[in-house]
Amino acid sequence: MNVLDVIKKQVGSHPVVLYMKGTPDFPQCGFSAASVQILQACGVKDLFSVNVLEDPAIRQGIKEYANWPTIPQLYVNGEFVGGSDIMREMYQSGELQKLLDAAGTTQTA
To answer: Using an 8 Å Cβ cutoff, are 100 and 106 in contact?
Structure first.
C-alpha cells in the first residue's frame, strides 16, 4: 500500500481526521495547537489525529493528497476542509460547528 492509499484509508475510516505536528495532548506547533483547540471548542468527540512528524512519507504525502502545502489539515467525512486559518475563519463564522454537527461528530449532535 503506498502512502496515498494509507492516507485515503485514514481519511475514509474516521469522521474527523486532523493531520498535525504532534498530538492533541502535545502539539508541536502553534497552528496544530490552535486547530485542536478549535475542534475541542466545537465539541468533537472522536478526533483521529495523525502526527506527521512520526512519518516523513505521510508528512509529504498529505500535502500531495489534498494539493495543500501546509499542515495541519482537517478532513470531515472524507472531505478536505482546510488548514488552521480556514478552520479559524469557519469557527468564527459558525460554519465549522454546523459542518461538524451535520456530520454527527460533536457531542451536541
So the answer is: yes
Q: Do β-strands 73-76 and 16-20 pair in parallel, antiparallel, or remain unpaired?
A: antiparallel
Number of domains in the chain: 1
Q: How far is CA 30 from CA 14, 27, 48, in A?
A: 24, 7, 19
Q: Radius of gyration (Cα) for the chain, nearest Å? A: 13
- The pTM assigned to this predicted structure is 0.94
Q: Which residue has the cell 500531495?
A: 64
Phi/psi region, residue 29 (left: phi>0; alpha: psi -120 to 50; beta: rest), is beta
> What is the phi-psi region of residue 74: left when phi exceeds 0, alpha when psi lies from -120 to 50, beta otherwise?
beta
Decide if 108 is inside a domain. no
Along the chain (109 residues), what's the average pLDDT of each consecutive run of 10 residues?
A: 94 96 97 97 94 96 95 96 96 95 75
